[in-house]
Amino acid sequence: MPLKPFAALLGALALLGLAAAPVGAAEFTDAAGRHLVLPDRIDRVMTAEHTADALMTVLAPQKLAGRSTADGRAYLPARAGHLPVIGRLSGPAPTAGPDAIFRFHPDVVIDSGPISQPRIAFADRMQAQTGVPYILVDDSIARIPQMLRTIGKILGVADRGEDLAIFAQNAIAGVHGRLLIQPTDKRPRVYFGENPNGLLTPLPGSPDGEVIDEEGAINVALTVGHGTDALVTPGQLLGWDPEIIIAADPAFYHALLHDRVWRPLSAVRNKKVCLMPREPFGWIDEPPGVNRIVGLLWLSGVFYPGPTQEDVRTSVRDFYEKFYGAKLTDPQLEALVGPACVPPSTDLQIANLPLLGAPPAPGLGSPGMLPGGAPMAPGTEPGGALGVTPGLPPPGRRGPAAPGTPSR
Predict the structure, then answer these.
(1) Buried b (16+ CB within 10 A) or exposed e, 221-257
(2) What is the DSSP letter of 395?
(3) Closest of 52, 78, 76 to residue 67, by C-alpha
(4) Segment holding 36, helix H or strand E
(5) What's phi and psi for 372, nearest 5 deg?
(6) How far apart are CA 174 and CA 354, in angstroms?
C-alpha cells in the first residue's frame, strides 16, 4: 500500500476536518488515538458490527463488502439491502473472525461504538492478524457530525459526509435549543423497555439510553444498577409509574396495551405508550449509531409537544430521504409513526429556533479553528480525534457512557 507525500500532514488535517480533498494513503488517528496507515484508495469496507452497518449504509453503501447482520432491509438503498451477511467481528457475541476478513478482502474494517481498552486491544489484535487497517469510531451523539465528516473524507465521499453532518448538527442543536426553554419541572419521567417482556432497560449514560439523556428526560431506572442496562421486575416498573413508556419490542408494546397487570400505570391510562420504529434501524438503539438522529427528532416531539416543535412527520420524511435515500409514501410514514405517540400534524410551528438551536457559523468557534480562523494544532481539537464538544449540553445529562461498555 504505497503512501502519497505529506501523509502525516494529511492525517492531521483529517482529524481537524480541514482537508479539502478526500484523504487517503495517509497516517490517520482513529477515535482511540491509534495511528493507522490507510491505502491509496478505499473501495471496500467491512463493518465489524451493526452500528458500523448503519454508518456505512448512510455514508457510502456502494463501498460495503457486506453486512454484519441480516436485520433491517426495509428502506435501505438497493445495493445495501442485498449484500451478503458476513457476521459480527466484535461485540458481546461475535459470529465471525479473521478468516472473514481474508475471505472478503476489505481495504479497511470499521468498528463503531464506545472506546474502551478491551476494544482497543481487540482492534490491535485483529489488525496484526490480518494486516488490514482496523478503524475504531466513537459515534456518541455529540460526535456524530464530526464523525461523518472525518470518515467521509477518508472514504472519498467528503461532500456526502458534510451534507449528513450538517443535518445531524442542526438536529442536535435544535433539540438542545428547544430543551433550554422547557421548565425543569416539565421534564417527563420515562421508561424504555428493550426486550420482549420489557423488563430489560438501558441505564442513563449508556449508548442505548443516550437519546433519552440528550432529551433531558428523567430515566426512571436511574438507581437500579451500574453499567449499560439492568433487569427490573414488574413491581419496580409499577412503583416507578412513568409518564411515558417506550417499547423497543412489539410484544412488550402489545402487552402494555392488553395485559391487565399494566393497567395501573399512568402511561397506559393516559395513552402514552409508544412503540419505537425499527426500520431499517431502531430510532433509539438497535443499533445505537447514526440512526439515532431521527430518534432525537421523534422524542423531542413526544416529550415536549407544543408550538416550538417542528412537525415530526416532516422531520422523519426529511431524515429518511437524506440518510437512506428513501422517499416515504404516506402509508409507509404512518406505519412507522402510527404506534409511536407522534402527535397530529399542525401548522403552528416555530421551526429551528435559530437563536437557540442554530449551529455556530464556520470560523470563530467552529471545530478545529482558533480566533481569526487559524487552524488549531493537531491533537488540540476539543472532543478528541473524531468528535467535537457541543456548545449546549442538554440539562439533565448524566455523563458519558460507562467505560468498557461493549459494542452492541
Answers:
(1) beebeeebbbebeeebbeebebbbbbbbbeebbebbe
(2) T
(3) 52
(4) strand 35-37
(5) 90, -5
(6) 8
Q: Which is higher by pLDDT, 362 or 79?
A: 79
Whether the per-residue pLDDT at 20 is higher than 70: the answer is: no
Smallest CA-to-CA distance from 287 within 113, 142, 165 is with 113
The model's pTM = 0.79
* Rounded alpha-carbon distances, angstroms, from residue 307 to 162, 304, 311, 345, 351: 30, 10, 10, 11, 9
Tens of pLDDT, residue by residue over 241-284, are 999 999 999 999 999 999 999 999 999 999 999 999 999 999 99
Q: What pLDDT, on the 0 to 100 scale, is given for residue 25?
A: 55
One-letter amino acid for residue 271 of the chain: K
SS (H, E, C) 187-244: CCEEEEECCCCCCEEECCCCHHHHHHHHCCCEECCCCCCCCCEEECCHHHHHHHCCCE
> How far is Cα 146 from Cα 16, in angstroms, rounded to an integer?
9
pLDDT of residue 309: 80
Cell of 52: 458500523
What domains does the chain contain, in order, with CATH numbers?
7-157 (3.40.50.1980), 166-357 (3.40.50.1980)
Q: Tell me, what amino acid is at 291?
A: N
Q: How high is the pLDDT of residue 223?
A: 85
Q: How far apart are the C-alpha atoms of 274 and 405, rounded to whole Å?
A: 27
Backbone angles phi and psi of 72, in degrees to 5: 65, 70
